[in-house]
């Protein structure tokens, strides 16, 4: 007998004639309108730096990360002149680890929790490129912002590799206080722009 | 009929970390003598209760989310066989390989052989309760494979040759000064000028593990959630060590208890709101990774999922106790428990300490192997209130106390008490006799002295209610 059959047999024996509950009560909130001010507050509360309504390329230039890693589908209008850009065409981990920063787009942002979600689309790139550089600059459009977690899930494709980011890398492992800066990017800058027209 | 396929079986002895070396009262007595431990725990649990309370207070629908979470878990358990098969189909279709492990020994063997097949002798690990439970690190080391814990608290425990004492923060029993000492003593290449500032200590861990992340080809993780509908796995973490392990290596092996299933993608909306606020007291943890099988050109190209029973089917067989499997490992019940706050996690002997450990460990091993744990509680009920999926821990504790083998003297006393209470004349006579104890002091004689070792015997009234009533 395979372990699968053994385990399924044991579980069925344990359950006997247990019936599932008649329904799942979903009386929690959903379907609300996103509040951009709340998103900014939540991001800043977890030590992300927010730039709102500013020119993207100039903001990136002012942060002066060099070299700047970008995914292959990045909007060329976001790239400042005079900054060395490294398009990700299979960059090695060692190259990424010493890059000055990475610039990506996002898929969804969640106002209530201050969360940005990347899904590996061409303007967000492989998961590794937003992980190894110490500075992550992320451009979020206003129409990508949703109110809370339920609305975010409806916009996401579970078949894609998803990374939910809420502030810079942090830990609560020392006396249960939140301390920023462990293995992931220690600086997170979010550029919040207008919706696509 | 399927019963011939085997009855639910508890976790095997001799492997893993579900059984302690001594009963809870003996271990707790030692822990209570450690003033530093009590100060560290008091500080940490007070901090986390305040943080968690504040962010839970931000959600007006917290109770509705708890109710939904509880119902979703009950639904998952009732449909576990079909959901597990569905998960296997979806993961397989997305390029992953699913393995079924009936117990700790089988899971350890599967993971060890998978690592050996890669030809590598080192794995990086994301913090995982399931692999702690089955003693995977010990099994890998016995096979000549080096497991490197990458979670900061797990690293502190591993470098300190210590044991985890909390589900979420395994090094909660250490303060910053002790962590600095451990790093100075055990971390190769550490800056001798290291201070005990948390940000400096975190920076030391970053430097120490960086090269290991970049050069290790195999990772082992647990999972917070697995979605049957889509085959998606989710790991919630803070530091980015999880992202490193889930993204950089060529091979990823995930070990997951069968109870971690969630039926649909939409159901995640409940648990992603409950878990961070209940566990680290954050609106959302810094990083959550979700993946479905293998993504060409992005992340590990070999993905293995090991589904672990190890006593869970035995827990499922108990209609009262099975809700312990609803646990999403947030550790809120530890942080509010007056017993845990004073003894710490080591006294429980199992990797699952605190209130949830006191109901989960005895059921996974069979109560006879953890007979003292159902008593490691004052039944105050704070754990039930704190639980984000509304597990009624006090009721399970009482239920398990009835399952524990009781000494024959106690059985005899209880039987005679029951008989007395059933017979009014005997009962009245017993009450009169009890008045005599006014002259016998406030301690009971053996074998009942255990009860009065830490309590005064209540003083019987000078007159029984029956006597008073008869005079009226």
SSE blueprint and pairings:
The complex is a heterodimer of chains A (197) and B (472).
Chain A: H1 3-15, H2 36-45, E1 49-52, H3 56-63, E2 68-70, E3 85-87, H4 93-97, E4 101-105, E5 108-110, E6 115-118, E7 135-141, E8 145-146, H5 149-155, E9 162-165, E10 170-171, E11 179-180, E12 187-193
Parallel strand pairs in A: 1-12, 2-3, 2-4, 4-7, 5-8, 7-12
Antiparallel strand pairs in A: 5-6, 6-9, 10-11
Chain B: H1 24-32, H2 35-57, H3 62-78, H4 80-93, E1 97-101, H5 104-118, E2 122-125, H6 129-134, H7 136-142, E3 146-149, H8 152-159, H9 176-186, H10 198-215, E4 218-221, E5 225-227, E6 232-237, H11 241-247, E7 251-257, E8 261-262, H12 268-279, E9 287-292, E10 302-308, H13 312-316, H14 332-336, H15 338-343, H16 354-365, H17 382-386, H18 393-403, H19 408-422, H20 424-435, H21 449-452, H22 465-471
Helix pairs in contact in B: 3-12, 16-18
Structure summary:
The complex is a heterodimer of chains A (197) and B (472). Chain A has 5 helices and 12 strands.
Question: What this model shows, in words?
Answer:
The complex is a heterodimer of chains A (197) and B (472). Chain A is 22% helix and 23% strand. Chain A has 197 residues and is an alpha/beta fold. Chain A has one domain: Rossmann fold. Chain A has a 6-stranded parallel β-sheet, sandwiched between helices. A 4-stranded mixed β-sheet of chain A has the order 8-5-6-9. Chain A has a two-stranded antiparallel ribbon with strand order 10-11. The mean pLDDT of chain A is 95. By secondary structure, chain B is an alpha/beta fold. Chain B folds into 2 domains: 30-312, Rossmann fold; 409-471, no CATH class. Helix content of chain B is 49%, strand content 10%. Chain B contains 22 helices and 10 strands. Chain B has helices at 24-32, 35-57, 62-78, 80-93, 104-118, 129-134, 136-142, 152-159, 176-186, 198-215, 241-247, 268-279, 312-316, 332-336, 338-343, 354-365, 382-386, 393-403, 408-422, 424-435, 449-452, 465-471, and strands at 97-101, 122-125, 146-149, 218-221, 225-227, 232-237, 251-257, 261-262, 287-292, 302-308. In chain B, the strands form 2 sheets. Chain B has a 6-stranded parallel β-sheet, with helices on both faces. A 4-stranded mixed β-sheet of chain B has the order 8-5-6-9. In chain B, a hairpin with a 4-residue loop joins β5 and β6. Chain B starts with 23 loop residues before the first helix and ends with a helix. In chain B, 52% of the residues are buried. The mean pLDDT of chain B is 93. Classes of the chains: A alpha/beta (197), B alpha/beta (472). Chain B: Residues 402-472 form the Lactate utilization protein B C-terminal domain.
